[in-house]
Amino acid sequence: MKAQWEARADLVVVGTGVAGLTAALRAHELGLRVLVVTKASGPDGNTRWAQGGVAVVLPGEHDEGDTVGAHVADTLVAGAGLCDEDAVSAVISGGPEAVQRLRERGAVFDSKPDGHLARTREGGHTAFRVVHSGGDATGAEVERALLAATTDGRLPVLEQHVAVDALRTPLGAVCGLLVLDGNGVPGAIGAPAVLLASGGLGQLYQATSNPEVATGDGLALAMRAGAMAADVEFVQFHPTVLYTGRGARGRCPLVTEAVRGEGAVLVDATGARVMKGVHPLEDLAPRDVVAAAITRHMANEPGGVDDHVFLDATGLGSMATRFPTVHAACVAAGIDPARDPIPVAPAAHFACGGVVADVDGRTAVTGLYAAGEVARTGLHGANRLASNSLLEGLVVGTRAAEAIAADLALGALADPKTALDPVLPTAPVADRDSLQRVMSRYAAIGRDAEGLAVVGSVLDLSTVDRVLDTRRLVEDAALTLAARALIAAAAERTESRGCHVRTDFTARDEERWHRSQVVRLTPSGQPVLADPYLARGAA
């Protein structure tokens, strides 16, 4: 099936989260004709669910002794040796200006009585440097402000349009996007630059903190266009998602790490501390450490409970006002956090890897850019430091817009008029329910060679080649590709590092594995490992 309608722009942005909207607004300020595409409605992405805040060291508003350098150091420690130090420095040092720009666009952060911004601390941070809004509704405020700015600036947003494939020239440059509108009618948007800001892939798993739209679409589209992915084996599981019963599926309410930052502790069914003696920071250890510790603890079935632990926040006394989102979720589940410990368990949360891109959003494919969770810039390494994600979206979104404007001005991008005829692609599609079940069982926090092989076999047996002519098929094809890429990388990495935990290779192997792995697609569409050195820089 070919495109039935056409549109033109200088830049097409896929996604309406923090990275996409920040990039779109900055590109619009620079005089570019921008068109934003989202497969749902504007607010339906992952950004609005971010609770904790933005990690940033602001001039005149930081802990005594805290510095940008200290924030960089904490990020490198959390990343377990796989961060790109130059990328980390660029993003962290760009934080203050990015937050200031966001505030100028209307975002309001919580303040203390003296007028300074309130700050909290989360796992892996050595200082109180996380600014927040609405107590635990920072993402919602960021999304509100950015969406309001697009409306005020008359920035066009195509809702209910799913990105299917990149338009390409005979030489392989990206020059637009093939999409399906809300009625399934294919359309072609010609543009010399396409920025993917489509978020993560939490729906690979049965239980996740991510909304239903997080299906890895951008990763799949980029790889089909010739881009590479890296660090895809590192999927961060948030340690504390509200446990709502055995067999919970889909998006589960998050219990922000800031609750532990302000004094709550993890305990088991017997009341024993989960993190005592596990790490010097105990309950505020990096997320990979806490999630793995909870998983090991549950395996011992303390008090007869093997599928959750508890977060004791009864001593905080201010849950309803400081953490209203968490408090409301608890009350809805019949829990009074002022009196009862909150049942929690780890759930899929954040993809640390993704499309290989630099901190200016450039990939190895001319005309294709990536920012936010879909991108692997080198900021996160093997495990993300808490509250660095909104920061990354703000900083890289801005830098990507400026890079695109520069590339256009230099004439470095392709003319959309040279695009090959857009045709809906055919791709392998696995049964989503089977995929989620085997990924959750064999490719979550604890993995081994036998289990990863089971995932591969199930995917092979349940996969059928389909024309991607509906949103559901686009999503399921993306999940299938993402799952295959992840298990290929996870099976090869015979060590435990960050949020990649192998039960058959429990040690960290610096001699062999102090490096990232790169995944590319074969001509037949199969993800395979590529030269690891390709991960060093993108363009």
Automatic annotation (TrEMBL):
Pfam families registered for this protein in UniProt: FAD_binding_2, Succ_DH_flav_C
GO function terms (MF aspect): L-aspartate oxidase activity; steroid dehydrogenase activity, acting on the CH-CH group of donors
Pathway: Cofactor biosynthesis; NAD(+) biosynthesis; iminoaspartate from L-aspartate (oxidase route): step 1/1
Gene Ontology annotations of biological process type: 'de novo' NAD+ biosynthetic process from L-aspartate
Protein name: L-aspartate oxidase
PANTHER family listed in its UniProt record: L-ASPARTATE OXIDASE (PTHR42716), L-ASPARTATE OXIDASE, CHLOROPLASTIC (PTHR42716:SF2)
Keyword Flavoprotein carried by entry: yes
Location(s), subcellular: Cytoplasm
Domain of life: Bacteria
Species of the source: Umezawaea endophytica
